[in-house]
């Protein structure tokens, strides 16, 4: 081969390489390209082995031409290899892309449980009238729960509250009047007292409107001049605050061992407005709370001079108020924590 033939072969090979490299689209066609143009059977290798037949005066020139050829083909190969790697990387990045436009997980904000909405409402009302708030244990002594409330052992009036006994001397408190006994003891016979006692209480009851556990707010006022008229005014204001100005309030005589005289308060029926229906058992009214003037025995038992002091007390059921206010059909709904029920009270 003379030098011109070699130059021609190099040109031809370069042309073939340029044509082939554009057809390379993946790793496998790139390997084929390498085998064909840089491998043992390539034109390049053949030219290298021809070198011994090249006359020595041309060897240097021909050698450089062949080395340059291999260099150029290698560059084509390298460029293509990088190109393919970049395409593969781009593809991988596309697949792994995090779409930041996707909506995130939203956090649902809860709202006050209807039970506590009522507790807070009643508490705010009485704090506004200058009452203190008192708290006590749910496991109470028989002494505070009954005896100090003028309900001696073996007296039939105990039957009014079917309680849970823990021992002969301990009960789950059946009303928060027990807290009032504690407040009176702490006052050591010195008035005035003006207090409300919100809290959970327990009785052996179980139907759609009664549960073994429910909430109460009881109130106690003891002073030298607290009157029955003050009691009626306080309860009327409370009931209008809770149920609206349109509700009529009615008081009936009643009996509680710890008050004398005792009353119960009713409000005009939500369903019929007072004309009588199934909901109010045709009375036009719904019973809502018990109250009365503190019995002189209770004053004396709790260390107050009943010739100097008098007072009034009242007790209202939290669950009952919430059921009437929000039209809830079963008291158990307050205690089962069903999210479908509770979400009815979400305020967005
Ligand atoms: N303690 C009574 C009850 O639980 C409610 C009440 C309180 C009634 C104060 C009158 C006076 O039923």
Characterise the protein shown here.
- It is a single chain.
- This protein is an alpha+beta fold.
- The protein has two domains: 3-95; 114-343, BirA Bifunctional Protein, domain 2, CATH 3.30.930.10.
- 42% of the residues lie in helices and 19% in strands.
- It is built from eleven helices and ten strands.
- The chain has a seven-stranded mixed beta sheet with strand order 1-5-6-10-9-8-7, sandwiched between helices. A three-stranded antiparallel beta sheet has the order 2-4-3.
- A hairpin with a 4-residue loop joins strand 3 and strand 4.
- Phenylalanine is lined by residues 175, 177, 218, 256, 259, 290-292, 313-315.
In short:
With 348 residues, the protein is of the alpha+beta class. It folds into 2 domains: 3-95; 114-343, BirA Bifunctional Protein, domain 2. The chain is built from 11 helices and 10 strands.
Number of strands: 10
| Helix and strand sequence | HHHHHEEHEEHEEHEEEHEHH
- Rg over alpha carbons: 47 Å
- What's the multimeric state? single chain
Distance between the termini: 91 Å
For this entry, give a set of tags.
rod-shaped; alpha+beta; binds phenylalanine; single chain; 348 residues; BirA Bifunctional Protein, domain 2; 42% helix
């Amino acid at each position: 081969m003379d030098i011109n033939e070699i130059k021609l072969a190099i040109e031809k090979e370069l042309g073939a390489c340029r044509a082939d490299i554009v057809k390379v689209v993946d790793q496998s066609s790139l390997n084929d390209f390498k085998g064909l143009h840089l491998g043992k059977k390539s034109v390049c290798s053949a030219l290298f082995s021809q070198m011994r037949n090249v006359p020595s005066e041309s060897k240097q020139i021909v050698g450089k031409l062949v080395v340059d050829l291999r260099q150029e083909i290698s560059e084509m190969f390298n460029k293509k290899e990088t190109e393919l790697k970049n395409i593969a990387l781009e593809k991988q990045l596309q697949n792994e892309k995090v779409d930041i436009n996707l909506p995130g997980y939203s956090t649902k904000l809860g709202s006050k449980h209807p039970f506590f909405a009522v507790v807070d409402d009643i508490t705010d009302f009485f704090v506004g009238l200058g009452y203190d708030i008192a708290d006590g244990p749910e496991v109470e002594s028989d002494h505070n729960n009954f005896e100090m409330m003028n309900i001696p052992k073996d007296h039939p009036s105990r039957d009014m509250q079917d309680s849970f006994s823990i021992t002969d001397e301990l009960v789950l408190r059946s009303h928060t009047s027990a807290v009032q006994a504690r407040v009176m003891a702490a006052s050591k016979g010195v008035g005035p007292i003006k207090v409300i006692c919100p809290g959970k209480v327990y009785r052996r009851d179980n139907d759609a409107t009664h549960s073994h556990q429910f909430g109460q707010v009881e109130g106690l006022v003891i002073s030298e001049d607290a009157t029955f008229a003050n009691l009626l005014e306080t309860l009327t204001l409370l009931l209008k605050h809770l149920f609206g100005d349109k509700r009529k309030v009615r008081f009936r005589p009643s009996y509680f061992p710890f008050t004398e005289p005792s009353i119960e308060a009713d409000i005009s029926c939500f369903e019929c407005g007072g004309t009588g229906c199934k909901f109010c058992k045709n009375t036009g009214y719904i019973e809502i709370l018990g109250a009365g003037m503190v019995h002189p025995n209770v004053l004396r038992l709790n260390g107050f001079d009943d010739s100097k002091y008098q007072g009034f007390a009242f007790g209202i059921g939290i669950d009952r108020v919430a059921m009437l206010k929000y039209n809830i059909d079963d008291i158990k709904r307050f205690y089962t924590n069903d999210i479908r029920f509770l979400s009815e009270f979400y305020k967005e």
